[in-house]
Every structure is written in structure tokens, then in C-alpha cells.
Amino acid sequence: MKKDKFLTELLKRAEEQQIVMYDVPFPRLFLFVSKKLGEYPWKFFLPFSVGLAIILHVFVGKSFDERILWLFGGL
After folding, report:
1. What's residue 13's pLDDT?
2. What are the percentages of helix, strand and coil residues in the chain, rounded to 5?
């Protein structure tokens, strides 16, 4: 394949992909998920899980610890 033909085909596919990306519902959310969570998901999920565990521990109390231990084969 010649270089010119390859570059035109590559540009054509890039334009098609961009059109598809903007036709997705909630394009800003899709861009966030694909760019941020695709590269380093632990930067989001680790703080989220720690925060969720603290919130559940505060609102549910001691039974939250017992439920987690039961879930993972506890006590």
C-alpha cells in the first residue's frame, strides 16, 4: 500500500471514529471513562472504595464489619 493511500485511509477512519464517539449518548461521560479510567482505573476506584467503606461504616455501624466478614468467609 502506498503511503498516500494509507494516510488517506487512516484519516478517513479517524473521522469515522470521531463521528461515532460524538453520537454516543452522554459523550462527556464516555470521554471521561475512556480516557481517565482506561489508563489508571485505580486512581478512581481506590479512593471511591475507601470513601464508600467509611460512609457505610459510619451509617451502618458494627454490623457493616460483620457483613463484610461474612461475605468473605469471616468469623
Report:
1. 93
2. 85, 0, 15
pTM of the model: 0.48
Q: CA triplet 26, 31, 36: central angle to 5 degrees?
A: 135
pLDDT digits (tens, 9 = 90+) for 19-73: 887 777 777 787 777 777 778 888 888 999 999 989 988 888 888 888 888 888 8
Domain ranges of the chain: 1-39, 41-75
Compute the distance between CA of residue 10 and CA of residue 13 in angstroms, rounded to an integer. 5
Angle at 33 between CA 22 and CA 46, to 5 degrees: 170
What three-state secondary structure class fits 45?
helix
Measured between alpha carbons, how far is 56 from 48 in angstroms, rounded to an integer? 12
Q: Is the dihedral of CA 51, 52, 53, 58 positive or negative?
A: positive
